[in-house]
Amino acid sequence: MRSKIVAGNWKMNKTYQESKALVKELKKSVKEIKLDNTRIIIAPPFTNLQKVSKKTKDTCIEVAAQNICALESGAFTGEISAPMIKSIHVDTVILGHSERREYFGDTDELLAKKVDTALKNDLEVIFCFGEVLEDRKSGNHFKVVEEQIKKALFHLTSEEWVNIILAYEPVWAIGTGETASPEQAQEMHAFVRELVAERYISGISENISILYGGSVKPTNAKEIFSKEDVDGGLIGGAALSANDFLAIVKAI
Ligand code: PGA
Hints:
The protein has a single domain (4-251), classed as Aldolase class I (TIM Barrel, Alpha-Beta Barrel), CATH 3.20.20.70. The model has no long low-confidence stretch (mean pLDDT 96). It has eleven helices and eight strands. The chain is α/β, with parallel strands linked by helices. α1 runs parallel beside α2 (46-55) and α5 (108-120) crosses α7. α10 links the parallel β7 and β8. The chain is globular, with a radius of gyration of 17 Å. 42% of the residues lie in helices and 16% in strands. The longest helix is centred in the C-terminal third of the chain and has 18 residues, at 182-199. Residues 9, 169, 174-175, 213-216, 234-238 line the site of 2-phosphoglycolic acid.
């Protein structure tokens, strides 16, 4: 049975002090929730990663990084490597987020390398993909998504797919308040699952968790999560408030 996952991407938000306060609130309230085959992951900025990782040790809250460098060490000013993440006991990384693709030059080719580096260092990957509005309007969204996935992930072996989580994030729905309809999300998730099924041995596609991301809020989470191929969410804005984030967790 594939896991349900609610992951919070804090992006470039929360100072050290603010993140300590948010984690404290999350830890307190999460105890009241009964988690059945559901994982909760939070991805704070790098400066807060170690502290949050320590504070959530022995709780049901897992911690992820928001990015890594494709290389493992060397003269790359400002970069953070996979071994560095691992050394502070963080086991998951988000890769391919549309903001990284748009503002920081994360191409499909570079993402394929980052995925390899992450897996080589025993990191699990939450791999994001999704079309921009023009692609959706012109009916190219399936083709765009197919290319993103094939180019960054289809060189992996079946064994490596065990450490992949997929996250469909239509760019037009991120931070805009506009959500893909549950039907649009389901349609894309089913398409992606089929894509994986065609390429890999059976079992991989049924077991892969596919999250939806893009303006998920406590008010719309339940409807989106009710779809068969939607296995959870990658949450941005609503992950910055303990109440909202936990309401979304409860919706699953
Ligand atoms: P949002 O962000 O929930 O604020 O739309 C989602 C994301 O970027 O992962």
